[in-house]
Amino acid sequence: MTDPEQRAQLAELEAKIARLKAKDAPRPHQEEHYSQAQMAWRMVIELVAGLLIGFGMGYGLDVLLGTMPVFLVIFTLLGVAAGVKTMMRSAAEIQQGMDKPAQGGDERAKNGD
């Protein structure tokens, strides 16, 4: 084999490896396309999950310590706050994804022609 043939084979092999790595690479969360209903359900689930986790922790501590309403109220409020914070972070992530210009597409449409 000559040296140019080896280089061509090596370049072909590197291209195959790059394609396979790109195919298996995890995509950023913002690149996934969600419908508006899916985004709304995601936010609702995040809020309810925070509420339920706080409620469960507070109820568990109250049962263990025998102080029924104290930790239940505190941790429920903390759970709601955590859920709202997570929901707001998701909303900011979605808004950031919408603010980005669309990749690809017609170059004339981008320039306003």
UniProtKB/TrEMBL annotation:
Gene Ontology CC terms, in alphabetical order = proton-transporting ATP synthase complex
- Keywords attached to this entry: Hydrogen ion transport, Ion transport, Membrane, Transmembrane, Transmembrane helix, Transport
What GO terms describe the biological role, i.e. biological process, of this protein?
proton transmembrane transport
This protein's record includes keyword Transport: yes
Q: Which residues cross the membrane?
A: 39-57, 63-84
Role this protein plays = A possible function for this protein is to guide the assembly of the membrane sector of the ATPase enzyme complex.
Q: Which family does it belong to?
A: Belongs to the bacterial AtpI family.
Any idea what this protein is called? ATP synthase protein I
